[in-house]
Amino acid sequence: MATLGAEVVGGILRIVLIAVETAPSSLLAFPRFLLFTATITGIVCLCLTPLVYRYRHAPPPTAVAVLAVTVSVLPLTIGIVLSLR
């Protein structure tokens, strides 16, 4: 949830800051900070996912696991794409 929240808020802020040309320079770093936060929490989620499957008696629903992995990989992908630009 923290990863998804940071991704959504960071994306919205990035769009708003592109549209507003007179944004203060202190706000320009905030979307990158949220992407960094999403990346860290995404890596933690990716590391914990195999442990959930190993130690939980009943595995989580497939849709939940797929969504968690997708949300966790998304900030890594965005970071790679932004660094290649």
Describe this structure in words.
The chain is mainly alpha-helical. The chain contains 3 helices and no strands. The chain has one domain (2-84). The model has no long low-confidence stretch (mean pLDDT 90).
Comma- or semicolon-separated keywords:
mainly alpha, 0% strand, 85 residues
Give the tally of β-strands: 0
**How much strand content do the residues show?**
under 5%
How many domain modules? Answer: 1
- Poorly predicted regions are none
Describe the sheet with the most strands: none
- Total helices: the number is 3
Distance between the termini: 28 Å
The averaged pLDDT comes out at 90
Summarize the SSE layout with pairings.
Blueprint: H1 2-19, H2 30-55, H3 62-84
Helix pairs in contact: 1-2, 2-3
Produce a short descriptive summary.
By secondary structure, this protein is mainly α.
